[in-house]
Design goal:
The complex is a heterodimer of chains A (143) and B (194).
Chain A lengths: L1 E7 L5 E6 L6 H20 L12 E7 L4 E6 L5 E6 L6 H19 L13 H19 L1
Antiparallel strand pairs in A: 1-2, 1-5, 3-4, 4-5
Helix pairs in contact in A: 2-3
Chain B lengths: L26 H16 L5 H26 L9 H17 L5 E4 L6 E6 L21 H13 L4 E8 L8 E8 L1 H10 L1
Antiparallel strand pairs in B: 1-2, 2-4, 3-4
Classes of the chains: A alpha+beta (143), B alpha+beta (194).
GO cellular component, one term (chain B): endoplasmic reticulum
Subunit structure (chain B): Part of the multisubunit TRAPP (transport protein particle) complex.
Keywords (chain B): Endoplasmic reticulum, ER-Golgi transport, Golgi apparatus, Transport
Amino acid sequence: MIVCVAVVGQQNNPLYIQSFTEAEDDLKLHHIVHCSLDVVDERVNNPKRSGSTLNETFLGLLYPTENYKVYGYLTNTKVKFILVTTDLDVRDADVRNFFRRFHSAYVDAVSNPFHVPGKKITSRTFAERVSNIVKSFRLSSSG
Amino acid sequence: MIGVGKIKQYTNVLEKPISKGKQEVSLSAFAFLFSELVQYNQTHVDNISELERRLEDAGYAVGARVLELLCHREKGNRRETRLLGILSFVHSTVWKVLFGKVADSLEKGTEHEDEYMISEKELLVNRFISIPKDMGTFNCGAFVAGIVRGVLDGAGFPAVVTAHFVPMEGQQRPRTTILIKFAEEVLQREARLG
C-alpha cells in the first residue's frame, strides 16, 4: 500500500508531498523522503555501471527501511519523484507504470502557465489525479 | 417517421460528439498572437534591449515546459547528459514539434570552444515581421532564443542564447542564426566525462 508520494525539485526543495495513511506519522514519512534524496544524489553522481544506466530515469528501489520500501525516479530536469510503500511484494513493472502515469500528471501540472517553476504545485487537478493513480495502484497490486 | 433510412442527424448541436481535432495550430492564429505579444511589450518598455529581454523571458517559460513535455512524450524517458546529445535534441525534436520541421543546420563555432549555432533560412516567428530601420539589430527571434535557453537550462546546461541576422549574398532576406554560448561549468563537465 502506498503511504506517501513526493515531488522534489532541482535544489532538493519540496514541490509536492502527499501521504495516504490515516495514521499521524506524516513527519516520519517526510523524514524518510528526505533521507532518500541522499541516495538519489549518490546514484546520479556515481553510476555503478556507466553507459547503459547513465541516462535511465527510473532509479529503482532506493533503500528498504524497517517496514517501508522507497522507490525513486528522476526526470530530465533533475526533478525527483519519491514513492514510499509498505508492500513487500510489489512488482517492478507496477512501479514503473505508476511512475509513468505520475510523470504524465506532473507534466500537465507544470504546463500550466500560472505555475511558477520552483514553487509548490498547488493545482487541485494534480492532487486529484495523483490520488486516482494511487487508488488504482492499490487495487491492481492487491489483486 | 423522421430519420428512418437516413444518417442520424443531430437535432441539437450540443449532442454532436466532439471531434479529436487536429494536432496543429493555424499559422495565422499564431502570427496574430505573436504580433500582439510584441506590440504589448513594445508599449511597456523604453528601449530595444529591454524589449528583447522581455521576449526572451517569455520564450524561457515556454522552453522549460516544452522540455518536460517532450521528454515524457517523445524521448522515452531518457536523460541527456552530453552536450552533443542535448544540441541534437534541440535541433531536431524541439524544432520539429514547435515548427514542423528540423532546423536547417547546426554548426560549431570556430573562434571559441563554447559556441554553437543553429541557423534557419527564415524563422517561423519572423515570417510576417519586418524590422523598421530605426530599431537597428533587434530580432524577434529573441523569443526562439528564449525557448532554446529554457530547454538548455532545464536540462542542466546553462547557456547564453541570442538571435542574429546573418546577411547572405544572393538572397533578399538575411538568414537567422541562434548563437548558443555555454557556461564554463558545462565545458568542464563535458571534458570530465570524456
